[in-house]
Amino acid sequence: MRPFTTTIATLLSVATCVHAKDLSIYDDSKTYAYQGCYNETTNQEDSSGVRALDGGITDVREGEMTVELCLEICGDGDTEYRFAGLQWARECWCASTLAGIAKKVDDEECDMACEGDGEFACGGNLKLSVYETSENAAGGLRTVASLGLASVLLLHII
């Protein structure tokens, strides 16, 4: 093979390795539990530009971001944030709440590998890999959704 062809073939093989089906979900934290892939809300017309994880802190670590590092950033400091989210392979977002208009999407939409550890998913294009503190995650978002459905059913019966 010629050098140019070899380079193109190598780039194509590397590019195919970063698809979500080849990425793992980080699950080695004693503090946070993975909740899923969520859409970013800034482009939704009913969001007023508010982010899915708003009101906290953000940290961008180009070439260095890992899920473990983001969870440390969100859980280690003056404020322990309930939610940690990774986006664009290098951004870490920490907040006490997840916007109600943020919707859970298929995990495959969080298709960017962390720049600091290519094994794990670190969000995607306007998608966040969201983690919640374990004490809240046991019921967490799933409980809120379940209570919402139960309330609707109860109201319907009454």
From TrEMBL:
Q: Which InterPro entries does this UniProt record tie to the protein?
A: Kremen_rcpt, WSC_carb-bd
Highest taxon in the source lineage = Eukaryota
Q: Where are the transmembrane segments?
A: none
Q: Give membrane topology per the record.
A: Single-pass membrane protein
Gene Ontology cellular component list:
plasma membrane
Record Pfam families: WSC (PF01822)
Q: Does the keyword rRNA processing apply?
A: no
Location, primary (coarse class): membrane
Identify the residues that the record assigns to the WSC domain, covering every copy: 31-134
Keyword Ion transport attributed: no
The compartments listed are: Membrane
PROSITE patterns xref list: WSC
- Please list the coiled coil stretches: none
Signal peptide region:
1-20
Keywords, sorted A to Z: Glycoprotein, Membrane, Signal, Transmembrane, Transmembrane helix
Recorded hits in PANTHER family, A to Z, give: KREMEN PROTEIN (PTHR24269), PROTEIN SLG1 (PTHR24269:SF16)
Q: What is this protein called?
A: WSC domain-containing protein
